[in-house]
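Look at one record.

>
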Amino acid sequence: MTATNEKHPVDPVTRQLVRGSLRAARLECELLIERTAMSAFIREKKDYQVNFLDRNGHELYGDTMGSDMVQCVWETYPVETMAPGDLYWYNDPYLSKGSVTHTPDMTFLAPVFLEGEIVAYCHSFAHFWDLGGSRPGSIGPANTEIFHDGTLVPPIKIIDKGKLNDEAYRIILRNSRFPDLLEGDTRALMAAANRAQERLLEMFGRFGKETTLAALAADQADTAAMVREKSLEMIPQGSFSVRDFMDHAGVSDRWYSYHVKLSRDGDHITLDATESDDQADGSINFLASDGVLAAYFGQYFLQYDPSLLPNHGLVAAIDEVKLRQGSILQPDWPAALGCRAHTFTKLKSSVRALLAKATGGNVMAGSAVYVIAYWRMKDEGKDWLLCTDGIAVGHGARPFADGLDAIYSRHNENYPGEFMEMEYPLRMERYAIAQDSGGPGKYRGGCGIIRDVRILADEGTFGLRVENNIFPTWGVAGGMGGGTSKVVMNPCTPHEKEVRAFSDDNIWKKGDLVRVHTAGGGGWGDPLE
């Protein structure tokens, strides 16, 4: 399938070379972040991205999940005011209309100028260690408003024609409990945005401005055309709906739910989440951007042509997306958003469930929500320390194979135990696959893990973001749900105590052991086959 620009056709070989240049540039810039960032959440867990956008702010290549990363910048800095050497910085979820989903995700945007006009934008983002807020790490299950989640940065011009805005920079650094880490991570993101500009300009120089622009536009059109063609081929007329529940809201024990519906009427395809519950009182709200449901839907079809790039075509292929203001997927200001990962991970899984219903099960089963533990400690008179520990879960079985065991998420990695022990007064005494935690099926779900952490510090607290301990993952085509999660202090001792899976400010004493048992993925197919 090939889309062409009639005014400037591009041959297939050149298009592949342009596509390869984008892939190589993104990989290089992301490795630059990994090798120069200071905090372990970026350096080891790899919670970062680099994305390329066209002159209209539409994704050329990356993983913005349908979000518009440029519009909120234009509202403060119109395009005609931008100049070469400018760099914009923001993290405000509400001003960005959900392009940023919680405050730790700091975002940098650089316009790329060629022959006096903007031809593209480079976007770099990473999850920062601490931005102030109610607790070290900025986010937590007990937060009830966005101000608890740390410093809000509206779109600002942090670099003006190559000159750093030092006053704004110092204000932001001052609001972190770990300013050295914040500064190091900021410099890494700035460097990545700068390198991305260099590589894009090299690409334009190699292939020519008009040829490159035509090739990039053709890639977007190809992705949209393929997703559109496959969706109309595979989805029958009618409606399909899924409702799923969150285990906890953080503040209350209420089970919040969201409801998504996929409808096809003729050739018109709609995704509708307006029947989801009202916004939560805790921090599990997810401020979904307009394109996120469409991108979740479109990603499924990329498997049918792996040569295509994930880009704006994923969003353009869907006719209509409906969300409701004031719901858990479109909360009103100033609702807390810090733990939105629980909601968007389950939402993404539920879009797959819609496709499973529509396609007769030709979709992987439900995957567990990844786990975060916040170890906050003080030892031997030193300053307070924070270890943000990302912990793996089981992923759903596929129509052709078992689910993946012990995976954090598709683009992040597990936090290494060796670094935990080297940098913090913690000792990992067990790190094992949770046997039989994957859901039974013709193909079993992926297994979660068991992670035992011994506390060696003098004092401290810990917070937990653990899902799937009440509502397990779901199976497909007769497959069964995965095993649930559980957190226990001092297991197999007289002092054994189960800990709320979604909680904060849990007090421990020196020598305590915390066991985190994560959930497994759902199974696919009849277990007796």
About this structure: The longest strand covers residues 117-127. The radius of gyration is 23 Å.
